[in-house]
Design brief:
Layout lengths: L21 H8 L11 H17 L4 H46 L3 H43 L3 H10 L6 H5 L2 H18 L19 H13 L5 H8 L10 H10 L2 H19 L5 H7 L7 H22 L5 H20 L6 H13 L3 H11 L2 H26 L5 E4 L2 E4 L3 H20 L5 H5 L8 H10 L28 H4 L6 H6 L3 H22 L1 H9 L3 H13 L1 H15 L2 H19 L8 H29 L11 H24 L3 H26 L5
Antiparallel strand pairs: 1-2
Helix pairs in contact: 2-3, 2-4, 3-4, 3-7, 4-7, 4-8, 4-20, 7-8, 9-17, 9-26, 9-28, 11-16, 11-17, 11-18, 12-13, 13-15, 13-16, 13-29, 14-15, 14-18, 16-17, 17-25, 23-28, 23-29, 23-30, 24-30, 26-28, 27-28, 27-30, 29-30
């Protein structure tokens, strides 16, 4: 490979160790020889400010501003795309020269020359990754300036601009995101590396085995970058977003090395097991909670208080567990296990002691043991970036499996016997079973968990290193962040501040220290997404927690029937995520899926009302399935959008984005369970329609709120 054809190296500072305004970040990330071909973000920002001044004094019309800004954008995009095509030509020329060497080598095999040729192809791949990084930075700049324009003038300009340019035959906008030429270069590199992988006369090519991808780190990093540019996704990415385990920004190699040192697979497995057991603990009592309340002399609808008391306690436990995880991971997990063990014992003993207060106290203890904030935090802080998506997907899968297993286990406990005056029956056995499960988990935790070293975390300080090495490591390990619809580059820069005023970088990089500070960082879009999360959790809780009372009243279902129904609902979670993550997310924009899912939740709620007498099983099961599945789809896209529009200051610390979403969902469960109990005072026959009426109101209001913020969710 000729040195004169190599793509230029990057300036120092590609891996940003401090969060600064995007204009500064763009300048620090620029490849020195390519400076003139990047989006002129500073110029465009000044233009936006000038437009605002001109409109304010009446010097220009709004129509002129729209037309002039669109022309400026077209010019900037044309500059980027023409340079991109030029660089693609350079890469194609280098590949053509390597092709000649490859053909000559096939006549006479030489192991040393084969290795040299493979490395030359990988060098082209690394330079292609740099080019993709160039496109990525420009795409982020386009998205940010469009967002700034809409925010400053209150226009829906982004929607207009993207719609008019996306599918026009002469538009260059698609060249930034859908790279046909780049895919051809990737294909050439992949095919030739595969041919050189086994040079002993194999007649099988990559075209004969399309399901077996070439395992090469350079190809993997290129494919990941192309996927981000084309807005493609997969199941693991979808589930990872579903977990809302936020990443702060582009990590440096030194930071990722520190995380590698702290990573321990068994400790990760213990965190996932904690997530699974807690979800089992949450839902295992749902099928029998109404019967337990009746056996203690209370109304069946008091099951709402019994189920909801755990959620009430979780509102507080999420905060102190999140704060505790700043200092330790093992100690909060040990405390969680002990509290849950005690809580389940109290829950089980309430039957023989004939105490409703003890029953509720047991569930409160269980809620105080909710360590999901620790589980999320461990994955975010202690799992290497290359494994974080899989770990996040494991977190969601463990939660879904626990939701399904809880009710399924409840139907196995239809028995009644005593040991030393302690009753074991369908209402107490869930408590005894979970107490035993937490005892076993506690022993496993004590033996196998390894507390991550805090010294490794604290020793990770910004260091000045060779920039080209940083870029190579970043692109080879897929560390560059997604863009546009998939970007993790947060909106903390100038969108959170007054135009022309830069925040103190030391303040920008600090995590928030109180709920009030966190609330101040919530934009209107973030508030709407949190409200949507509240809505979907409310709808799901009304369906799940009220199922025992409603099905007993209308259909005289036994505990077994209720448990099977709830288990079947839980089992839909993973298949739905497979469909959404693998298909729907590739076909539609996330905001389109979001709005459609909200409408389907609304339809499912409407179909659930008891208007036609008699109320039938097919109506209840069918409408419940529509509501639950739509809410599951909605949860995935909602948390994905939330992770993009939320400030990066909420990615770490005690009051992080995961905590805020957990609090919103937990409050929804508390309100839903309280509504069930209050509706019971009007009679069991009113529980269904009263709870659904509240759910319908919240759902419709969330749809209206989504419509008002729809154009900010691009």
């Amino acid at each position: 490979m000729e040195e004169g054809n190599r793509l230029p190296s990057c300036r120092q500072g590609v891996a940003i160790t401090k969060m600064v305004a995007f204009g500064k970040k763009l300048k620090q990330n620029q490849i020195q020889e390519w400076q003139g071909y990047y989006i002129n973000y500073k110029l465009m920002k000044k233009k936006v400010n000038r437009y605002a001044q001109q409109i304010e004094v009446g010097a220009q019309s709004r129509l002129y501003v729209l037309v002039d800004f669109a022309k400026l954008l077209d010019s900037q995009i044309e500059k980027i795309v023409l340079f991109l095509l030029e660089q693609q030509g350079i890469l194609a020329s280098r590949l053509s020269n390597l092709r000649e060497q490859h053909d000559a080598l096939s006549q006479q095999l030489d192991g040393l020359k084969v290795s040299e040729l493979k490395e030359s192809y990988r060098a082209v791949g690394r330079d292609l990754s740099r080019l993709l990084f160039f496109v990525e930075m420009n795409a982020i700049g386009l998205r940010k300036i469009l967002k700034k324009f809409d925010k400053r003038f209150g226009y829906k300009f982004t929607n207009y601009y993207v719609k008019t340019r996306a599918n026009h035959p002469y538009s260059l906008l698609q060249q930034v995101f859908k790279q046909v030429g780049i895919e051809a270069v990737v294909g050439a590199i992949s095919r030739n590396l595969a041919d050189l992988q086994d040079h002993r006369g194999s007649y099988i090519s990559i075209y004969d085995q399309p399901a077996t991808p070439l395992m090469d780190p350079v190809i993997d990093s290129i494919n990941a970058a192309v996927d981000r540019l084309t807005n493609s996704t997969n199941l693991l990415q979808f589930l990872g977003k579903h977990a809302l385990i936020m990443q702060e920004e582009l990590p440096t190699p030194s930071q990722d090395h520190a995380v590698d040192q702290r990573y321990h697979f068994m400790s990760l497995l213990l965190n996932l097991a904690n997530t699974f057991l807690y979800m089992v603990n949450t839902y295992i009592i749902v099928p029998t909670a109404d019967n337990y309340s009746l056996s203690l002399g209370a109304a069946a609808t008091v099951c709402g208080v019994v189920i909801g008391s755990m959620a009430v306690a979780q509102v507080f436990s999420s905060v102190y567990f999140s704060a505790w995880s700043n200092k330790s991971y093992m100690r909060p997990l040990v405390f969680s296990s002990i509290v849950l063990l005690v809580g389940n014992v109290l829950y089980a003993l309430a039957y023989d002691l004939n105490s409703l207060s003890l029953l509720i106290l047991g569930r409160i203890c269980c809620g105080l043991g909710s360590a999901r904030a620790v589980n999320r935090r461990y994955i975010s802080d202690c799992v290497p970036l290359k494994s974080r998506m899989q770990a996040s997907a494991g977190f969601v899968s463990a939660s879904a499996l626990g939701m399904a297993c809880g009710p399924a286990l409840a139907c196995l406990f239809e028995t009644n016997f005593k040991i030393y005056k302690i009753t074991f029956n369908e209402v107490t056995l869930p408590g005894w079973f979970m107490a035993l499960a937490w005892l076993v988990y506690l022993l496993w935790l004590w033996i196998s968990f390894r507390e991550p070293s805090r010294e490794a975390e604290e020793s990770t300080v910004p260091q000045e290193v060779n920039a080209e090495l940083l870029v190579n490591e970043a692109v080879e390990n897929g560390l560059t962040q997604p863009l546009l619809l998939n970007t993790k580059d947060k909106e903390e820069d100038e969108d959170q501040e007054c135009d022309g005023v830069e925040e103190d970088p030391n303040e920008i990089q600090k995590p928030v220290t109180s709920l009030i500070s966190a609330y101040r960082l919530l934009t209107r879009s973030v508030k709407v997404q949190l409200y949507i999360y509240f809505m979907l959790k409310y709808a799901m809780e009304v369906l799940l927690a009220g199922s025992g009372v409603i099905t007993t009243y209308y259909f005289v279902w036994s505990v077994r029937h209720v448990a099977i129904f709830l288990a079947c609902l839980g089992l839909t979670v993973l298949p739905v995520n497979v469909i959404v993550g693998s298909c729907i997310s590739n076909m539609f924009e996330e905001r389109q899926v979001l709005l459609a899912s909200e409408i389907m939740v609304c339809i499912g709620t409407l179909l659930s009302f008891n208007i036609v007498i008699p109320y039938s099983v097919p109506q209840y099961v069918g409408s419940g399935l529509i509501t639950f599945v739509s809410a599951e789809v909605l949860e995935g896209v909602n948390l994905s959008l939330l992770s993009r529009v939320m400030s990066s200051r909420l990615s770490r610390g005690t009051y992080n984005g995961g905590l805020l979403s957990t609090e919103a969902g937990t409050l929804a469960r508390v309100v839903a369970d309280g509504t069930i109990t209050l509706a019971g005072y009007l009679g069991e026959g009113m529980v269904l329609n009263v709870t659904l009426l509240a759910s319908l109101f919240i759902c419709i209001s969330s749809i209206i709120a989504t419509c008002f913020t729809y154009n900010t969710l691009y």
